Amino acid sequence: MTAKLSLRGVRKRFDYHEVCKGIDLDVAEGEMVCLIGASGSGKSTLLRCMNLLEPIDDGEIWLDGKDISEPGLDPQPVRQQIGIVFQSYNLFPHMTAVENVMLAPRRVRGLSRDDLRPRVTQLFTRFGLGDRMEHYPDQLSGGQQQRVAIIRALAMEPQIMLFDEITSALDPELVGEVLDVLRDLRKQGMTMVLATHEMGFARELADKVCFLDAGRILEQGPPKVLFSQPREKRTKAFLSRVL
Amino acid sequence: MEETSLQKDSVERPAATPTRREVYEAEVRRRSNRIALISVVSVALAIVVLVPLAPGWEAVQRSFFNGRVFVETFPGLLEAFLMNVMIFAWSAPLIAITGLVIALCRDTRAPALFPLRLFGIAYTDIFRGLPVVLVIYIIGFGVPGLGLPRPWNSPYIWGTLALVLVYSAYVAEVIRSGIDSIHQSQRSAAASLGLSDQDTMRYVVLPQAIRNVVPANMNLFIALQKDVALLSFIGPVEIFRQAGVYKSLYANFTPYVGAALIFLALTIPATRYADYLMNKQNRART
């Protein structure tokens, strides 16, 4: 099994604080990997490194057998293949939902609004937002905004999607609608990496769960194994706190 | 069932019988209104009664508040004010554009464009560091001194250009602060979608930044409207200079008061509007 995305010895430091201390991770095509761990364990930073929002200090990241962590490499083509959705949605507040979604395909891939209209409309409808396309972000609920953010990333037709705690900022009753979107993507065979606190969701759908602790992957494996028979003491301690 | 009936009750009650709280607050409101009214009336009375008691009041009244002079000069002043409006009307868009360009110059990061950045910094430093009237003198008298052919030797053109140069520096700084105020996460989101730096600036950062600084820029343009009067020092007969002409003609200062009223008629509504926009924005943010 050749991995779609491979991390080898990835290190990332902010000033004197090392957030990722040598991370190895393989994500196969169509696989869903969940990163779990306490706040500050390096989950978010790791995701941001994967689509080159943060340059890594050491190690390598391979995408489809190509080293994308080469210093000086143009990050833009890579980012088109790896989409990311953030905890705080980060929609552009001055644009309607549909303009948010169309901006990058128009500017980066040179498509016209008319080219995009059918596919974008289909995405909005698929995620239950068919009647919200012309709304501005501040006219949408958190759950709706986050779904728009997912659609915005999907509109670039990425091969891998990264999700950075996308339900953490949501009111509990809105979490479900966003998780449903992830289930849908999972069914379609999208390759996904999630940083998440939704343990139930990880257990239900993930192919692999990685427990991050102080910048290292302490333990990884299928959710059944990791959740029921964790080997490490720290994994056990963390799981007993969150389950 | 019981819960809904309770809610209904609490909604309807204020119309029927006010709560203790509402009675108290209404009383406090009445009392503050009463005190404010008494205080305003007594200050106004004091001014009306005391100022005319000053020994020079009659003379001041004659030379600043002369009704006849006011009526005779006011139409002329209004006409001269058209010149202010015209200068304002063609300098304001130029200032907006130049300010934006300078702000973008200061924000360039590419090494090849470093001279632009340097230029942006030098520009804002120099023109914010000089009194407006000095720039108007230097450019308004200096450039026509080069012996350019008509109409390029007009102080009207070069004086206005001086205003454009100075105010662009202020507008540039305001726009730059607006750019800085856009949260890094917006740039991250744009970058993660594969947008280039230029597109991120043009489609994501600038539209938000400009919107945020509209009230601050409005205040600058109100100041500009007033500073147009400074051009009177180098020639153009705008309202301030026209008032000066009338003053000499009538040996009376009333035209200045007339000019002041005309300025206020424009700047007070404009400042109120800017405040309104600013408040609206502050409310939207919280």
TrEMBL record, chain A:
Its main location: membrane. One of its GO terms (cellular component) is plasma membrane. It is found in: Cell membrane. SUPFAM superfamilies: P-loop containing nucleoside triphosphate hydrolases. The keyword Cytoplasm does not apply. Coiled coil: none annotated. The keyword ATP-binding applies. CDD domains: ABC_HisP_GlnQ (cd03262). It holds the Pfam family ABC_tran. One of its GO terms (molecular function) is ABC-type amino acid transporter activity. It comes from the Bacteria. Keywords: Amino-acid transport, ATP-binding, Cell membrane, Membrane, Nucleotide-binding, Transport. Belongs to the ABC transporter superfamily. PANTHER family: AMINO ACID IMPORT ATP-BINDING PROTEIN, GLUTAMATE_ASPARTATE IMPORT ATP-BINDING PROTEIN GLTL. This is Glutamine transport ATP-binding protein GlnQ. The lineage of its organism: Bacteria, Pseudomonadati, Pseudomonadota, Alphaproteobacteria, Rhodobacterales. The gene is glnQ_2.
TrEMBL record, chain B:
Pfam families: BPD_transp_1. One of its GO terms (cellular component) is ATP-binding cassette (ABC) transporter complex. Keywords: Amino-acid transport, Cell membrane, Membrane, Transmembrane, Transmembrane helix, Transport. One of its GO terms (molecular function) is transmembrane transporter activity. Its main location: membrane. Gene3D superfamilies: MetI-like. Residues 81-274 form the ABC transmembrane type-1 domain. It is found in: Cell inner membrane; Cell membrane. InterPro entries: AA_ABC_transptr_permease_3TM, ArtM/GltK/GlnP/TcyL/YhdX-like, MetI-like, MetI-like_sf. It is a multi-pass membrane protein. The chain crosses the membrane at residues 35-57, 77-105, 126-144, 156-175, 249-270. One of its GO terms (biological process) is amino acid transport. Part of the binding-protein-dependent transport system for glutamine; probably responsible for the translocation of the substrate across the membrane. Belongs to the binding-protein-dependent transport system permease family. HisMQ subfamily. PANTHER family: GLUTAMINE TRANSPORT SYSTEM PERMEASE PROTEIN GLNP, MEMBRANE COMPONENT OF AMINO ACID ABC TRANSPORTER. This is Inner membrane amino-acid ABC transporter permease protein YecS. It comes from Ruegeria atlantica.
